[in-house]
Design brief:
Blueprint lengths: L13 H12 L2 H66 L2 H13 L4 H17 L4 E6 L5 E4 L14 H8 L3 E8 H7 L11 E12 L6 E10 L6 H9 L2 E8 L5 E9 L16 E3 L7 H8 L5 E7 L2 E10 L7 E9 L1 H51 L14 H83 L6 H26 L5 E3 H15 L7 E7 L3 E3 H22 L6 E9 L5 E7 L16 H12 L3 E5 L4 E7 L11
Parallel strand pairs: 13-15
Antiparallel strand pairs: 1-2, 1-5, 3-4, 4-5, 6-7, 6-11, 7-8, 9-10, 10-11, 12-14, 15-16, 16-18, 17-18
Length: 671
């Protein structure tokens, strides 16, 4: 039943009251569509703000890609310069004049003056043709300079970092990078007097072996010293090629420390690939990075290019860095390129300011429409929420007032119907609870009775296990008594055949008694450890036939195999007969030899039993299945009982192999 409240009289204008009532009676979906259409327009405008941030991120990515591309250009300049120096060194090492000069010096410690002049000219051309400063020297086996681009140093000992000696030892080319003080460079090479004394210079030394073509023996070492930074450096050419920005070369020393080899900060901004004249007033040298985090990340990245954004000398740059391979690996070279972000960041900031102004306007409009929506929709929903909260706290008689026909009014009506249904359900639940308690009580009684029955079954099972062990114990005792009686009986006979027959019977009974003894002592009443059983059985047969290990040596090659009683009985008798035959027939003349007893189980479950001796062997031409012997007849019969096979081999004695699977237990009493 619908309960309607009195309409509010606060709305003075009939038209306004009609419009509000009309909007209230609209389906809630129509309300949401009307409001959301307005919000969509505002959100569409708000997307421009997101676009600004997307553009900023994309600009960052573009700057990163640009920095990587510019770094690749620097890398190409560096590698081309190094490869050019190495190619020149390799070509000179193969020059016949240089090879002949090294051979002459090593033989006579002197060189023909004409050849000397020619080699000096060749090495001086190295300096003239190089894009950057480079010196070359030819060093002999005594580590003295034979010839070079500086003839005045001929005869000086020249073995930088002991690497000339290493090339003579290994016959391999070596290239290393070293940071050298500019003053030390000027002392060694007066041509470089223009270098600043306080500046560190990155020098690459290339040690190329000079070998004879016939014997490939190292006659000398061609040493090239190339200035990577300093005079007409790679950084100057990088700025000329790429344009303004930050360029640096770092080295990681063996102890992990990063050292700035050289850097150049061009304060002018230029387009990539546009050549321009350098203005020294806009260049800053030896400017270090604010931190070495990017260098550590490059080392950890194993050759990957790494980018970061950072401030250098008050301006923001996108910095890219990458390691270069060093032949000697004494130092790791790291190239650094910083691309300035001034212009693109200015454009983005101006765009952001415009979008922020628009965003403020959108926020104001959104607040206005949100308040309107809250008055029309949120207030009735809060009233319904308050009624629902009272109902959930236990007031089952509370009901919502229905004053509309839209979805909110329908929701209030459904709440009232649900409350009525819940109240009826509570009554039904009380009745069901009483029924459930009664059923639980009955179930508890059934469980207690089942536990009692289970306890009785466990007690009965333990009693049966105890009884079964007692049966095995008594069977074992009775079999041992029969075995002992047969042993005593042999004392009253003189006929050897009769005595032997009694002994054989006693051993057979003993083999069966051992099985029951194993079952009695074991916790497993279904299977016995047949390998342990065989050891006791063989020991008893040795005692029965008065054999010692000095006469017959028994080699046991048995692995743990567990068999049930149905299988163990016939198998034990087979072993008893086969071992007894060895003692009786295998060594008639010598009285001594070896017997091997093997037992193992295949993955398929098949058990393999073997008895071998190195005695006289089974008579040729005699079928063991047709021999008039109780023992052999028992062996064949028991093998059939096991549903197995038996095989005889006469090579170097006698070998019987019995193969079978464990027999399945068949109940004697129908269940």
């Amino acid at each position: 039943m619908l309960v309607r409240e009195k309409k509010s009289k606060n709305l003075s204008s009939p038209r306004l009251r009609f419009g509000v009532q009309w909007f209230e009676n609209l389906p809630i979906l129509s309300k949401l569509v009307t409001v959301l259409l307005t919000l969509d327009i505002l959100v569409f405008m708000g997307f421009t703000v997101i676009e600004v941030y997307v553009e900023r991120d994309e600009a960052g990515e573009l700057l990163g890609d640009q920095a990587k591309a510019e770094l690749a250009t620097v890398e190409n300049i560096y590698i081309n310069s190094i490869e050019q120096a190495q190619s020149v060194a390799e070509a000179q090492a193969e020059n016949m004049a240089i090879i002949n000069a090294a051979e002459q010096y090593n033989e006579n410690l002197t060189i023909n003056p004409e050849l000397q002049e020619r080699v000096n000219q060749i090495l001086q051309n190295t300096e003239l043709n190089s894009e950057t400063a480079q010196k070359a020297f030819l060093v002999g086996k005594d580590l003295n300079i034979i010839a070079g681009s500086q003839p005045e140093r001929i005869g000086d000992i020249f073995n930088p970092y002991n690497l000339v000696r290493s090339v003579f030892s290994s016959s391999e080319k070596i290239a290393v990078n070293q940071v050298v003080n500019a003053q030390e460079i000027k002392n060694k090479f007066p041509d470089f007097s223009s270098l600043s004394p306080s500046k560190n210079i990155l020098v690459q030394y290339i040690f190329t072996p000079v070998t004879t073509w016939e014997t490939e023996e190292v006659q000398g070492v061609l040493v090239s010293a190339k200035l990577i930074t300093g005079k007409d450096s790679i950084l100057d050419r990088s700025v000329f090629t790429i344009g303004g920005g930050y360029h640096a070369i770092y080295l990681q020393q063996p102890n992990g420390e990063f050292v700035l080899a050289a850097s150049l900060l061009d304060l002018e901004s230029h387009d990539f690939g546009q050549h321009h004249n350098h203005n020294p007033d806009n260049h800053l040298n030896n400017i270090s990075l604010p931190n070495t985090d990017i260098l550590s990340e490059v080392i950890a990245g194993e050759g990957k290019t790494v980018t970061q954004r950072m401030f250098i000398e008050g301006s923001q740059y996108t910095v890219a860095a990458k390691t270069l391979t060093n032949t000697r690996e004494n130092m790791t070279v790291i190239l650094v390129r910083g691309t300035p972000e001034v212009e693109i960041l200015g454009l983005i900031n101006r765009s952001i300011k415009r979008q922020i102004s628009l965003f403020v306007l959108i926020i104001l409009l959104t607040l206005f429409f949100s308040i309107t929506l809250a008055r029309l929709i949120a207030k009735p929903l809060k009233d319904l929420q308050r009624k629902t909260q009272e109902f959930s706290q236990g007031n089952l008689e509370v009901r919502a007032q229905v004053s509309r026909t839209d979805e909110i009014g329908q929701l209030a009506l459904m709440f009232n119907q649900m409350a009525d249904g819940i109240l009826a359900a509570f009554d039904q639940e009380a009745a069901n609870t009483e029924t459930q308690l009664r059923l639980n009580k009955e179930l508890k009684q059934q469980i207690e009775e089942r536990h009692k029955v289970e306890n009785k079954l466990k007690i009965s099972l333990r009693e049966k296990e105890t009884l079964l062990k007692e049966i095995h114990h008594r069977v074992k005792n009775n079999l041992f008594v029969v075995s002992n009686l047969l042993e005593f009986q042999t004392d009253y006979f003189d006929d050897p055949k009769l005595i032997q027959a009694l002994e054989d019977s006693r051993n057979r009974i003993y083999s069966m008694a051992l099985i029951h003894q194993q079952l009695y002592r074991s916790t497993n009443l279904h299977q016995i450890d047949f390998s342990s059983y065989l050891e006791q059985l063989v020991e008893n047969l040795f005692e029965s036939y008065n054999q010692t290990e000095d006469e017959i040596k028994c080699h046991l090659k048995i692995k743990p195999v567990f068999l049930n009683v149905e299988t163990a009985h016939p198998c034990g008798l087979i072993v008893n007969e086969l071992i007894s035959n060895v003692f009786k027939h295998a060594f008639p003349e010598t009285g001594g030899g070896d017997v091997w007893l093997g037992l193992h189980q295949e993955r398929s479950g098949e058990v393999v039993l073997s008895v071998k001796d190195n005695g006289v062997g089974f008579p040729k031409g005699v079928n063991f299945r047709q021999v008039n012997s109780l023992g052999m007849e028992l062996i064949c019969t028991l093998t059939q009982q096991l549903e197995g096979t038996i095989e005889l081999k006469r090579k170097r004695g006698t070998l019987f192999t019995v193969r079978f699977y464990e027999l399945k237990y068949c109940p004697r009493i129908p269940v």
